[in-house]
Design goal:
The protein contains 1 helix and 8 strands. It has one helix at residues 13-20; strands spanning 25-29, 34-36, 51-55, 59-68, 82-89, 96-99, 114-123, 126-133. It is globular. The protein binds zinc ion. The site of zinc ion has 7 residues, from loops. Zinc ion is lined by residues 29, 31-32, 43, 45-46, 48.
């Protein structure tokens, strides 16, 4: 059974278009020099409309996580129990992204652990950002 695919609207479309090109972007307000996510029509802080999308490094840390046992999203039920983690991007504490931490089991990660973006193809040509633990056994050398 397929995972749910994103349904972009006019405001979030640039984010999903970038994801389909395997790029992670976030909205940036030129009025007050801050990122905001998810994308909105105006800046939540200064109400300005001078917003652009900027590419992120894809690196971040786990801000919080939980194990989902009882999602009401029927398409997701066969993946339960599953991890739902909030990732804080390294660019800004205002940019939080959700992930299932693919490849990681409960007990293998904790709050503050570094993660890196990867893109999961949920339908042909449609990608969603996911995050994978960084600094695994094969990664230690590069630190
Ligand atoms: Zn602003």
């Amino acid at each position: 059974m397929p995972k749910p695919v994103p349904l972009p609207d006019a405001v979030t479309k640039p984010f999903w278009d970038a994801a389909n090109e395997r790029r992670l972007v976030a909205q940036f307000c030129l009025g007050c020099n801050r990122y905001q996510h998810p994308p909105q029509e105006k800046c939540a802080k200064c109400d300005g409309g001078d917003l652009e999308f900027r590419q992120l490094s894809g690196r971040g840390t786990i801000y919080s996580w939980q194990i989902m046992h009882d999602t009401r999203v029927r398409l997701m039920q066969e993946y339960q129990p599953m991890v739902i983690a909030v990732v804080e991007s390294e660019e800004s504490p205002d940019v939080w992204l959700l992930t299932n931490l693919p490849g990681s089991e409960q007990g293998q990660f904790d709050i503050g652990d570094p993660v890196e973006v990867e893109f999961e193809e949920v339908a042909p040509g449609t990608f969603i950002p996911q995050f994978r633990l960084a600094g695994g056994p094969n990664d230690q050398e590069s630190k």
